Amino acid sequence: MTELVIDVRDLHKKFGERHVVKSLSLQVSRGEICGFLGANGSGKTTTIRMLCGLLAPDSGEGTCLEHDIRREAAQIRRQTGYMTQKFSYYEDLTAKENLELVAGVYEMHDQKAAVRDIMERMNLGRYENQLAGHLSGGWKQRLALAACVLHRPKLLLLDEPTAGVDAKARREFWDLIHDMASEGLTVLVSTHYMDEAERCNRIVYLADGHIVVQGSADEVVNSAGLVVYEAIGDRVDEVSRRIRRAPGVEAAAVFGHALRIAGADRAALQRAIDSFPEFSWHETEPRLEDVFIHQLAAKETPQ
Amino acid sequence: MNGISFKRLYALLRKEWIQVRRDPMTLRLIIALPVMQLFLFGYAINTNPHNLPTGLLVSEPTKYERAIVTALQNTGYYDIKLYSSEADAERALVTGEALFVINVPPNFDRSVDRGEQPSILIDADATDPSAIGNATAALGAVANVLARDLPPNQQPQPTSTPFQFVVHARYNPEQLTVLNVVPGLICVVLTMSTLLMTTLSITRERERGTMENLIAMPVQPIEIMLAKVVPFIGIGYLQTITILLVSAVVFHLPIRGSVPLLLLALGLFIAGNLALGLTFSTVSSNQMQAQQLAQFSLLPSLILSGFIFPFRGMPIWAQWLGELLPTTHAIRIVRSLLLKGNGAAAIAPELWPIAAFTLVVMGVAVWFYRETLD
Lengths: 303, 374
Description:
The complex is a heterodimer of chains A (303) and B (374).
Chain A (H helix, E strand, L loop, with lengths): L3 E12 L2 E12 L3 E6 L5 H8 L7 E6 L2 E2 L4 H6 L1 E4 L11 H11 L5 H11 L15 H13 L5 E5 L7 H16 L3 E5 L3 H4 L4 E6 L2 E6 L1 H8 L2 E6 L3 H8 L7 E5 L2 E6 L2 H9 L5 E5 L3 H13 L3
Parallel strand pairs in A: 3-8, 3-9, 6-7, 7-8
Antiparallel strand pairs in A: 1-2, 1-4, 4-5, 9-10, 11-13, 11-14, 12-13
Chain B lengths: L5 H17 L1 H21 L7 E7 L6 H10 L3 E6 L2 H10 L4 E5 L3 H6 L7 E4 L4 H9 L39 H32 L1 H7 L4 H30 L8 H25 L3 H17 L12 H9 L1 H13 L5 H30 L1
Parallel strand pairs in B: 1-2, 1-3
Antiparallel strand pairs in B: 3-4
Helix pairs in contact in B: 1-9, 2-7, 2-9, 7-9, 7-10, 7-11, 7-13, 9-10, 10-11, 10-13, 10-14, 13-14
């Protein structure tokens, strides 16, 4: 049996009248990269905050790193790195001073060496004396990552770490995360990017405080049983508007000259494309994004 | 995680120190604010104004005029200018060009010579009573001035009184406004900087989202609070010493009591303000709210503490409110130590109200802090 780093059951959290997290159970094993997906307001940030003891759940229980999330928040925090959605280090301190603060607060033994090592690993060397507020988005993110892995945590909670960062910086960021996971670090990361979701070992999709689907990217795609057709043509925008209303079509989206429609009911979808014979349709592999749109559509129109 | 860790505290203090140092505006304000106020109060404000513009209206030439004008000018309060018509004099009073108009009535010489004791009417602009108060009080001595010019049979009989009052103006014999203001200024500047700046520095962490990160790290709330508070104690003392130095060198402020005792008492006062600042920052959700709360409390500290207006001049209920404010007691302590040269025994009655205030407010801060953490 694999060692569970996160093991929580039936978590609930309400803010006033809003029930933000509903009966959430989650198991993540050591060394796993678990992707947290879901629309804005689906409860990702609240769940992450409950896992590291920043918020107490209304009901439900569980452990993080074998410590109770209610009673032993302090022990969990010592071994966890939490990267907030918004940059939350000090913009009027230099990169190095921010890292020194973190090293001091975690009472590390050889603080100077730890700061030097992490800056080398994250390639932050040439920015060490620059104010964090003057760094570009990508480097800020990297500084934040450096700061939350500085104390060598066993669990990393990343809340939309790459929002607003360019593609190259995102790719490098994920390479670092994979490096660290291969050394045994467990990572829970929330994201809106499908390419990032595909780089996770496991995807957990949240909607309205519930876990809707979870599994590896392939599992999630296959379990949805989605049929996707694609066609290339000139009047795709207009056709997309009309075909969207056809029964059985759950989503229709235009990508350049290509029109992509998806639905669970193969027969209905077949009838829909037959009414546009001027296009040459062909069936294609469903993608993660199709699945999530499908999930959302399924929630909005309960059958 | 139990107890305060000095390693963590040191890391937090270092961060606070860098932040204060890197904010040139804050640093300049810390020194410039008290020095500027000191010079404004020292040179610009005078609660005993002299040489007030005065109009003289004489309906016919009079032989006593010169003696009276000279006597008025000699009091130092009046700067006299002749007006030719009643309309001109009235206009001067209306526009504020003159604060007083002296009306010498017709037949003044004859009335005086006949011993009729005529009146000279002085119109005074009483919109600001404190501006003209001392000038009108000085008039009493002027009426005797004509004695030498009168024939012997008209001389007023020297009145003999069974006793007389002799005033001995102690502690500030020249009655200089600046000596009254400096002690108050020390307290008000301390209130402004310690209260306002701690309040802002904590709400700023919350507003910028850095507080979430700080709480997610293994720090104790008390360590965050201490790290926020300690730099401002230092800054408070820096300001106190600046004010004392400038006042002593430029305004010849006497420092009669013990300076260590003064600094010790002010330490308690600073603690009270910091406690209030912590409370404000825990109950408000952003810098704007915190600032409004701090300003809301600053106004009574300025007005009810005896800093600007005489404490004894307030109605009893306002005096009671004033007694609740630490600033009131701190001002008394500083005046007592600096001007009167008193010792520890004399200021003890003013110390315990500040200590009580600090404890109560600190309790409120701790109580609210526990609530907001979760």
